[in-house]
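Q: What residues go here?
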């Protein structure tokens, strides 16, 4: 049981680390895409930008 418990814990830690990395990559890609889209559209100071809303 002890070996199985340690094995499960090691797998869980690696899985959490992988999910965290994927989350950071996804948010980073989304932020870059939003920034590029906002740069390509006309300036409109009245509306909140999507990238600012994402950071909140």
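A:
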């Amino acid at each position: 049981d002890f070996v199985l418990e340690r094995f499960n814990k090691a797998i869980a830690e690696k899985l959490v680390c992988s999910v965290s990395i994927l989350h950071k990559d996804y948010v980073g890609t989304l932020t870059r895409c939003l920034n590029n889209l906002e740069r390509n559209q006309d300036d409109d100071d009245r509306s909140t930008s999507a990238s600012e809303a994402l950071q909140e």
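A: Context that may help when evaluating the design: The helical segments are 2-40, 50-55. The longest helix spans residues 2-40.
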